Amino acid sequence: xxxxxxxxxxxxxxxxxxxxxxxxxxxxxxxxxxxxxxxxxxxxxxxxxxxxxxxxxxxxxxxxxxxxxxxxxxxxxxxxxxxxxxxxxxxxxxxxxxxxxxxxxxxxxxxxxxxxxxxxxxxxxxxxxxxxxxxxxxxxxxxxxxxxxxxxxxxxxxxxxxxxxxxxxxxxxxxxxxxxxxxxxxxxxxxxxxxxxxxxxxxxxxxxxxxxxxxxxxxxxxxxxxxxxxxxxxxxxxxxxxxxxxxxxxxxxxxxxxxxxxxxxxxxxxxxxxxxxxxxxxxxxxxxxxxxxxxxxxxxxxxxxxxxxxxxxxxxxxxxxxxxxxxxxxxxxxxxxxxxxxxxxxxxxxxxxxxxxxxxxxxxxxxxxxxxxxxxxxxxxxxxxxxxxxxxxxxx
Length: 396
Hints:
There is one protein chain. This protein has a domain at about 25-75 and about 120-185 and about 240-315 and about 325-390. Mean pLDDT is about 95; it is low at about 180-185. The chain is mainly α. It starts with a helix and ends in a 7-residue tail after the last helix. About 75% of the residues lie in helices and about 0% in strands. The protein contains 17 helices and no strands.
């Protein structure tokens, strides 16, 4: 084989490998497994994964700069909440560029209004539940907090109500203009996007190195964890909204199974870290059982159906250039900050949200893990049964 032939063969192999990684979506079940592993690794490294805490930190900083808040929040550049959310956005943006999927996509006027209203609902609901679909449900349940299950029930109810509203809207409100026309790029940067994406990730490595050099290795590691979440979620199109919406809308259960795989891995990892004493037992055992978790979950679930994205989903889709989801993220952050501040100044309101319930205190670690795994396996089996029967599917 000549040198030129060998070069062409090597180049073809590399192009096919690049295409498989960035031009073809990864299986959603793989995304669930990788997110579960990353959730445990992030907790083992420093702290659990969250999204709305970072958004609230940005909003708190904004309101403080305006003079509305007297107490200065942690710097968004060093806050672990902020860094995880920034990493999620960073990773999704870079992955979208490398896969040539980034584009500024404008939404119709009604969709933008729904983005504002949905973002506000999500901000209020996440403040009540002690977190969004990640912190209030996924991570809280992984941390063996009973509030996580309360929010799960609320998310199911909220998603059902949100879907009923969307069906009503389709029947009674004027239809939006075709989305394809409003989503076209005004400037074609497709040939350059992979190179820009490479620079984005080189910048991430430089930033993480800077944190390590400045004695912020913990923060730099969390930035890389957040970026990994962003890449995984963007490439697999992992969406918590679909986990709670699809059984009612399309009857599909693939996202339910992916979330089940993910949260079982995360539960096992968190339980091991807490049981061995490597991490404190009270971490992410949110004081929102039962009212805050349940009602907050309903409010948040309704809002995420209006928005078209959950906490993590809104951030990674904003990283792909969706204008509506950028609006959602801004309204989500601002409303969460304001409502959390309102809750904090009212002791009665705060007490109404509930209390911390660490399940092993009542059931022990073994039975807590068994019961939680059983709950999610049953939910997954119910989704599989619904795929065949359409018993839960809502008709228009």
